[in-house]
Amino acid sequence: MLYSSELEFVTVWLVGGITGVISAVGFLLASALYYAKQTRLREAKVSPKFYAPIHKNPVFKYRALRVLTCSAFLALTLVSFVRAQSTHPRQVAVASASIVYITCLSVLSVVPSPALSAMANRHANALLLSLFSVYAYRDIWPLFTFDKRSIDIDEGQILWLKVAALGIAAIAIPFACPNQAYPATMDQLNPETTNPEEHASLLSLFTHSYSDSFIFERYRTKTPLTVDQLPPLANADHSDAVMPRILSILDPPSSAERPYLFWGLLRAYRRRVCVLAFLNILQFALTFVAPISIKQVLSYLENNGEGATIRPWVWVSGLFLGPFLKAIFSQLLTYMACRNNVQISGVLNQLLLRHALKIRTDSGHHPREQKEKSNFTGRLNNLAASDAAEVAGRSDYWIVFVSFPLELALCLWFLYAMLKWRYLIPPRAMMVTDTITSAMIGFAFILLCVPVPRYIAEILRGIETKKKYKTDARIQTVTEGESLSFLP
């Protein structure tokens, strides 16, 4: 039998059946909305876009390769079903229908229609990943253990051909496929007018390999770099694309709706905020992979493999993969945080200048006797010159407060699992106390030290406030002195 237990039937039914039904319903609804929108555009006589031939688009070959791998996986699955002669026709029907549906989605993703191909591509990637997770649990994970056996091992070589085809379609192609519009216009395919980062694949973004050609070209030419030789600015970083959306949140037309600066920036960058928080937690969690792997390897050597369920080469691989993945995600976090800081700095400067033009500095609002107290010109210059950059540079400090509870929980678990030890009562008591873990002691010490950084921060805040007031007064004096020097 192909599926011998109720658990196996549930996994196939849930992943293969329910996810396929949900995807099919969502795909049909999205397609209906798309064609309704196209009908309205045709009635409004909107001129259509002209796209480049699809064979010139680098995305086409990856999606065509996915069609071939999905077709090969479907053929291998049908062959294995026929050979197995399963007595569970419902399971076979569910699995076959799911694979046929995925193959049809991969074919639709090649169609040169922007909305239809994009929807089909998203649904195909999600279903392929869910199907690969089932095969990883059933057939790949047992290879990492001593006490488990691949459920579908009776299929022989066909099983590993299926896993290879599914791995290429679900993992390799989505990671290696460029993030290029499909279909694309000739301007979108022109490398001289587009930034390579915009069209880089996930693998290229993680490793920053999209900048290799530019770096090696500069290395070969040995000429000084000029501004004209830099790659064009990405469309997402242009002020025309960034400012209207963010200013509508930070500086709406109605002053009653104007939020606080922090909440406004958090709302404007909510998606990037979630990504940054996730990356911060992920790279922190990866720091525990190497210590856990070392502990498991030493435990395996100490006990000569007795009681071990996971093979030692898995933990040896963790010694490399843990720091390696942590470095990748840490650099990606740094890159995205710096990019946000630059954008927020530009937003704050434009917002400041926008309001500065609205200010009328007449004598009724700023009398001469209060100039030294107000230091209005000095504050305005400091806001534009240094304060905006400082606010932008500290815009990602909130990530520490978001990820701190989870990081504390991970540290507590690690200390409890790895560093527990026994305290002994003095010899005259001649008894051993219960197990007391160092985790509890470390956790208590952390809680006791929580007020210390807050106290230090309050002291530094007071000093920084006084410094800013004196800086405003100094800039005010210099500005007034320079203004008087130009008088006849």
From TrEMBL:
State any GO CC term.
Answer: membrane
Q: Which domain of life is it from?
A: Eukaryota
Report keywords, A-Z.
ATP-binding, Membrane, Nucleotide-binding, Transmembrane, Transmembrane helix
Q: Which GO terms describe its molecular function?
A: ATP binding; ATPase-coupled transmembrane transporter activity
- What residue intervals traverse the membrane? 12-35, 64-86, 92-111, 123-138, 158-177, 273-294, 314-335, 397-416, 436-457
Which InterPro entries does the record cross-reference, listed alphabetically?
A: ABC1_TM_sf (IPR036640), ABC_transporter_C-like (IPR050173)
Q: This protein is called what? A: Uncharacterized protein
The organism's taxonomy opens as: Eukaryota, Fungi, Dikarya, Basidiomycota, Agaricomycotina
